[in-house]
Write a structure and sequence with these properties.
- The chain is an alpha+beta fold.
- The chain folds into 4 domains: about 110 residues, DnaJ domain (Helix Hairpins), CATH 1.10.287.110; about 90 residues, Sandwich (HSP40/DNAj peptide-binding domain), CATH 2.60.260.20; about 70 residues, Urease metallochaperone UreE, N-terminal domain (HSP40/DNAj peptide-binding domain, Sandwich); about 35 residues, no CATH class.
- Helix content is about 25%, strand content about 25%.
- The strands form 6 sheets. It has a 4-stranded mixed sheet with strand order 10-11-15-14. The chain has a 3-stranded mixed sheet with strand order 1-9-8. It has a two-stranded antiparallel sheet with strand order 2-7.
Amino acid sequence: MESLSYYEILEVTQTADKTTIKKAYREMAKKYHPDKNAGDADAEHKFKLCNEAYQCLSDDKQRSIYDRYGKEGLQGRGSSRSSGGFDDLGSMFEEMFSGFGGSSRGRSRQNPADMEKYSLDMNVNMQISFHEAVFGCEKEIEFSYKNSCTDCKGTGAKDGKLSTCQQCKGQGQVYMKQGFMTFSQTCPVCSGVGSSASEACGSCRGAGYKEVKEKVTIKVPAGIDSDNRLRVSGKGNIGKRGTRGDLYVTFTVKADKHFIRNGNDIYIEIPVFFTQAVAGESFKIPSLTGELDLKLDIGTKDKQHFTFRGEGVADVHGHGKGDLIAQVNLTYPKKLSDKQRTLLKELQDSFGIEESKPHEGILDSAIDKMKSWFK
């Protein structure tokens, strides 16, 4: 479960709104709550992961940072995801009122030399086929990650020497007055670091890192879907102190020619000639694992659904399988020969007037009523 993103832990999409996220969290928390799973260490661990995921995704600021930079981007930004409670509220109020002279606890700033110039977590996109997504597979990824420049110690400055930013005087913040109120914002020159390079590092040209190519083989689980993310531990960017982040793979699944996927359910459109529907014939249809027997009802209607339980996609979280739904699309002849017209007429007459011409009684009464309006 740790290899999944926060969205996948709560089993929601990346575009889910707060209400959906809250509902999903409540269901997951209820499922894995320690009171209902006494002595189950795995359930307790999953409960903690659900809390961690919800605390991040329920906060707009943390969610925005997470979407852009992953878990690594949340470190050192006033976030205490695993603990929750009043410490987070204290940090929030401290950030809100920092422009009014600071908080009572003061604001400790990180040493510029220790601050990373980029997120250690990184993301790559991967497109896979419908078959690979449904049944799982192994894929090789070739990607480039950032490795901190050793010559400048990741600062981007020659010999690692930084000078105080002249715009903010090393504070990392600039202040603006509007009437009797004072507001602060991140220094646009040094991006809040408080220092800048007097001379750019010649080895990395001031970037603070070098890009390195790497290949890694990942195991894609069965049931993966578009927008799902898979975490590859320890394959992200490398920071100044040698710490390496994680690589996140975001999937896009190609559409299939015959099957249409909706969550874990699979739809397939079955063209049926009108005489087959009338007679309620039986025939075989394709499924994900072979063939299935479809028995039509006598007088099957156009767009009618026939459901095969458990014949869909395996849930990526291990919660069973979806269904296969066969949708009947009736087809009719585009032209008729004289013989075919005669045969159809004979067939229609064989059902009798009441059954073969149900419209006559209704239409006749409607016409008589209409005529009475003009008398």
